[in-house]
């Protein structure tokens, strides 16, 4: 990674900003070029806060723009000649895809196609790493979810676009011998995360004295994965591109891999809420006598949701010697302390 140029899309996002920050801190001579369109899908000031930290580094360059702008992506590749691309730009969220499908097609399909095309015409690219999602497993019943499982039953457009990314990357790896690795992230959380995620939304509502809705009557399980574990997994994967090899027919075997990055330990949503409330009280976000029972509402499953996410991380451990290990309590404690400092002291 030393002296490499890394192009990170979605760099003002939760994962992108943390990844860029860690790359700059960890590797000497690394140059990080980041792009983000700073959409108002959630609080823009949070994205600006993340960028402010990165803009202090001399080896970080920020470009405001949309990956769906093909001419802009071509210009960035021509000017900066990235060695590694990490595509994290995407319209996120399952429920939003039900009401705003256009945003998903533009960013997740057209935008990703532009990245693939730029990689195809680049002489400098060594590895394309891109974000997929645990949502590709859809209505699969077998757990834990393995990358060997069929993923042909998406239950949201968001999931369908992420599965499409994997298929598109495979085709480009096969046709143009571009080493690519897809990462299926499982419910990423932590300080300065996405406000549309449950733990963040619950905290906002509880602070306002509003009721929180717990879906599927609390019978959901999620493989919550702390942001530092996600970033560590991405960095390890970035440094090891799938090997280029030819098959017996003399044609390239696609240098293509997909991995799960999850905590491999799904947590019941009600247990999760209990730990969250304890940590919010500890961080003095909420008073000690807060009446949680009167602020909880158990409701049915939402369209596009799945009852359980659970990652089989065996291939990640085998190939990179890494397994996410941050406990839910430690992760939620870090979030609660950040929230107290960022929101409660303003």
Mean pLDDT: 94
**Cα Rg:** 20 Å
**In the CATH classification, which architecture of one domain applies?**
3-Layer(aba) Sandwich
Unreliable residue runs: none
Spatial order of the strands forming the largest sheet: 3-2-1-4-5-6-13
CATH class of one domain: Alpha Beta
Q: Level of helix content?
A: 25-40%
Any idea what the shape is?
globular
Beta strands, count: 15
What would the CATH topology of one domain be?
A: Rossmann fold
CATH superfamily of one domain: NAD(P)-binding Rossmann-like Domain
The main β sheet shows up as: 7 strands, parallel
Q: Spell the H/E element sequence.
A: EHEHEHEHHEHEEHEEEHEEEEHEHH
Per DSSP, what share of the residues sits in E-state strands of 2 or more residues? 15-25%
Structural class: alpha/beta
Give the helix tally.
11
Task: Kindly report how far apart the N and C termini lie.
Answer: 38 Å
Describe this structure as you would to a colleague:
The protein has about 350 residues and is of the alpha/beta class. Helices cover about 40% and strands about 15% of the residues. It has a seven-stranded parallel beta sheet with strand order 3-2-1-4-5-6-13, with helices on both faces. A two-stranded parallel ribbon has the order 7-10. Strand 5, helix 6 and strand 6 (about 180-185) form a beta-alpha-beta unit. Helix 1 (about 15-25) packs parallel to helix 2. It is globular, with a radius of gyration of 20 Å.
